[in-house]
Amino acid sequence: MALTGVLRPGHAQLRVLNLEEGVHHYRDVLGMVETGRDEQGRVYLKCWDERDHNSLVLREADQAGIDFVGFKVLDKATLDKLEGDLRAYGLATERIPAGELLATGERVRFRLPSGHDIELYAEKRAVGNGLQVLNPAPWTKASENGIAPVRLDHCLLYGPNIAEVQKIFCDVLGFYLVERVLTPDGAGNVAIWLSCSHKVHDIAFVEHPEPGKLHHLSFLLESWEEVLRAADIMAMNNVTVDIGPTRHGVTRGCTIYAWDPSGNRFETFMGGYQPYPDYEPTTWTFDGLGAGGGLDYPQRKLHESFLSVVT
Amino acid sequence: MGVNVHIEDTGERYDCVPGESLLKAMLRLGRRGIPSGCHGGGCGVCKVEITRGAVTTGAMSRAHVSADEEARGCLLACKAYPLSDVSLRVLGRMHKNVCRPAAKA
């Protein structure tokens, strides 16, 4: 099997200012499936085509933002190996017992120099996507509820020291650099898009002075028409839209950025391309991000909110 | 019936209809530079201080508005809904943008 090590972003825990408003947004407007609630009051959701029990956990708190992002790894041996590799690299790791998150096995957590908590885990209970494994139908009724993305796809995080973050993902966890934006002086990177798979990004970072910030969580749709339908559904439900529908130059993804009721940005997107680890990374100059269409290819401008509005 | 909102820093006035946030109504001024962010009380770019009048509020992130600030009327405009005519001062990022001369139409 070619896909080993870290498989995919598997879960993210978001802080929301009002739990039921958050649940309404992610379950009824975005159209995820609610799969459980725990003793802490956290609510668990998954996209309709995801097979594991949860991909999004909502926690009510007095500050918006992201608590952690978890990546599923191939198996427990891989989890042990990667924990050893992280420690050998010089990072402190912490084991969180199985069951602390519903239906989820033991997690290894570490903090990036950007201030974000990242987790690795090998086990999460498979609950299926509502389709039989043998001779399945292509979709279910849940695939038409709300915006109905097929999966949690990636996230974009803002914080300091992204050069060091890149080394941890690429040198320790087996990711590779797909695209980047140079700093204005061209000497470093102001933004990086990293993949552990055949996806154009599994996680991305922008250099930012405040640690631990969320720019957006992204959910995958399967067509441009579905992105336009998502825009209609957002407008019908008074969701505040940031940018789009449009196309990013970076990654070629067709996108809408919008905000949940607590101000956490989310993205509904489709497209991009399928990179391989041997590809030369695509480079954008800092001007290319704005006037070159990196952020918004048709409008060719750096929307002010992109670099300044985070939670 | 709406209420009138007075921006002390610039002398501008605008109307705000029931149920509408101070920020959403302010955007109708059509001015460049009004920091309109998440409209969810999370990102903190639209901070103002209410100096006169009454507002109700929705949930705002404590990362941007402390309990003390909230008690003395320092709020996020996206989560403040006026109950009467209101005067406000703009704070932080919003102050820099709303009050710079070039931003005046």
UniProtKB/TrEMBL annotation, chain A:
Keyword line: Aromatic hydrocarbons catabolism, Dioxygenase, Iron, Metal-binding, Oxidoreductase, Repeat
GO molecular function terms noted in the UniProt entry: catechol 2,3-dioxygenase activity; ferrous iron binding
Domain VOC: 8-123, 151-271
Requisite cofactors: Fe(2+)
Keyword flag Metal-binding: yes
InterPro entries, sorted: Catechol_2-3_dOase, Glyas_Bleomycin-R_OHBP_Dase, Glyas_Fos-R_dOase_dom, VOC_core, Xdiol_ring_cleave_dOase_1/2, XylE-like_N
Keyword Transcription: no
Catalysed reactions, as listed in the record: catechol + O2 = (2Z,4E)-2-hydroxy-6-oxohexa-2,4-dienoate + H(+)
Xref: CDD domains: 2_3_CTD_C, 2_3_CTD_N
UniProt superkingdom: Bacteria
EC number: 1.13.11.2
Family according to the record: Belongs to the extradiol ring-cleavage dioxygenase family.
Subunit relationships: Homotetramer.
Protein name: Metapyrocatechase
Species the sequence originates in: Azoarcus indigens
Lineage: Bacteria, Pseudomonadati, Pseudomonadota, Betaproteobacteria, Rhodocyclales
Automatic annotation (TrEMBL), chain B:
Domain of life: Bacteria
Domain 2Fe-2S ferredoxin-type: 1-94
Family annotation (Pfam families): Fer2
Single GO term (MF): 2 iron, 2 sulfur cluster binding
Name of this chain's protein: 2Fe-2S iron-sulfur cluster protein
Species: Azoarcus indigens
Gene3D superfamilies: 3.10.20.30
